[in-house]
């Protein structure tokens, strides 16, 4: 049975129901007391970080970066919201938006049990559009996520997608700056990072989007290897031998291959992904002024030029 007790550091009623965990953190369902309702909804998720047990680098670098990134992306519909933060000598508390339907990996596994269900491609397209919207918003705010994977994407009760877990995010503010740190999960990591090269964080995020889209439409990852050097060998084999897109619609295949391009500079950027013809049905259904929205993400003029024309396989 669920037990509830008051969290004295912040005045929320903390449930015994754990809904997530990390190396140095646990996430619990919580209820806002009357005096907290002005700051947050009734039901929230509270992430409790054991700062006393975590390495100094985590407490002084990754946690502040996560908080700063969530603050910078505040009020985007597809990024989990940070309502408040608290801390004491032992712990830090992040009061977060609740996404009660679990993560995208759980959803993909559940859907994979019913492969013939109507509307699966449409659902994948709708969710992927929301993910692209969230990532585009992050990039336009000077933030690269660096740990995009199905487990870091949540769903709420309305079926809306919520991007979360910004612990590895980088806030350079410079769109063409190069990074050198290895971050994220090997199965989602771009080949240039596996080769220990300096890399563009936005381009690396786009590779991860390709892995996620492949998983959404096939129910499996294109590369299952968890060891970096073996994973690098798989990705170097190229799209024709490294993974198969054959059962998928031609437009979807083209989008995946454009994202899983080994050459970072040849990889699709977020504008081109949003303008891709496979994405258009979801874009027009959710956002009638699709062209203006895509242009605004990149800080471009509202008139769409050739680079934003829908890409379709020839």
UniProtKB/TrEMBL annotation:
GO terms for cellular component: cytoplasm. One of its GO terms (biological process) is microtubule cytoskeleton organization. GO terms for molecular function: ATP binding; tau-protein kinase activity. Its EC number is 2.7.11.1. ATP binds at residue 47. Gene3D superfamilies: Transferase(Phosphotransferase) domain 1. Residues 13-279 form the Protein kinase domain. PROSITE patterns: PROTEIN_KINASE_ATP (PS00107), PROTEIN_KINASE_DOM (PS50011), PROTEIN_KINASE_ST (PS00108). It catalyses: L-seryl-[protein] + ATP = O-phospho-L-seryl-[protein] + ADP + H(+); L-threonyl-[protein] + ATP = O-phospho-L-threonyl-[protein] + ADP + H(+). Keywords: ATP-binding, Kinase, Nucleotide-binding, Serine/threonine-protein kinase, Transferase. It holds the Pfam family Pkinase. InterPro entries: Kinase-like_dom_sf, Prot_kinase_dom, Protein_kinase_ATP_BS, Ser/Thr_kinase_AS. Coiled coil: none annotated. Belongs to the protein kinase superfamily. This is non-specific serine/threonine protein kinase.
């Amino acid at each position: 049975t669920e037990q509830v007790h008051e969290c004295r550091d912040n005045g929320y009623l903390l449930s015994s129901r754990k809904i997530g965990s990390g190396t140095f953190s646990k996430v619990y369902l919580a209820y806002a007391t009357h005096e907290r309702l002005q700051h947050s909804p009734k039901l929230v998720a509270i992430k409790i970080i054991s700062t006393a047990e975590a390495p100094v680098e985590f407490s002084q670098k990754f946690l502040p970066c996560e908080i700063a990134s969530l603050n910078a992306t505040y009020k985007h519909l597809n990024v989990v919201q940070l309502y408040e933060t608290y801390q004491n000598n032992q712990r830090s508390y992040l009061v977060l938006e609740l996404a009660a339907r679990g993560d995208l990996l759980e959803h993909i596994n559940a859907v994979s049990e019913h492969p013939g269900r109507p509307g699966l491609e449409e659902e994948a397209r709708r969710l992927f559009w929301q993910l692209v919207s969230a990532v585009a918003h992050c990039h336009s705010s000077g933030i690269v996520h660096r740990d995009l994977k199905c487990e870091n994407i949540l769903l709420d009760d309305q079926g809306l997608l919520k991007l979360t877990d910004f612990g590895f995010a980088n806030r350079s503010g410079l769109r063409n700056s190069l990074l050198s740190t290895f971050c994220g999960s090997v199965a989602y990591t771009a080949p240039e990072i596996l080769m220990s090269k300096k890399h563009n964080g936005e381009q690396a995020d786009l590779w991860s989007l390709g892995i996620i889209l492949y998983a959404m439409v096939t129910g499996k990852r294109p590369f299952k290897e968890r060891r970096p050097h073996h994973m690098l060998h798989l990705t170097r084999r190229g799209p024709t031998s490294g993974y198969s897109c054959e059962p998928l619609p031609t437009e979807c295949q083209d989008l995946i291959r454009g994202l899983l391009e080994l050459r970072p500079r040849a990889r699709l950027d977020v504008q081109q992904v949003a303008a891709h013809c496979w994405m258009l049905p979801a874009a027009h259904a959710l956002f009638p002024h699709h062209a203006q929205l895509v242009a605004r993400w990149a800080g471009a003029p509202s008139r769409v030029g050739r680079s934003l024309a829908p890409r379709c396989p020839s």
